[in-house]
Amino acid sequence: MVGVLGDLDKGALMQILTEPKNALIVNINGYSNFENVRLRFADDALETVADLALQRKVGARGLRISSKI
User: Fold this and answer.
1) Which of 30, 38, 41, 56 lies at a C-alpha separation of 20 to 30 Å from 22?
2) pLDDT, position 36
């Protein structure tokens, strides 16, 4: 069986960054809590990460890489 998946749009990438319980932003805040630091990400920053993933055509897996830049 073969399945074809469509490309994710910016809105879908933003949801992946922020909404699931294992979202990238949640994970980053979890790591920073060890140092008693709470990070807040501006919407513009999250949009930039999503835009970079779209430009590089790396999809949801690329969000982790794009967010480190």
Assistant:
1) 56
2) 78
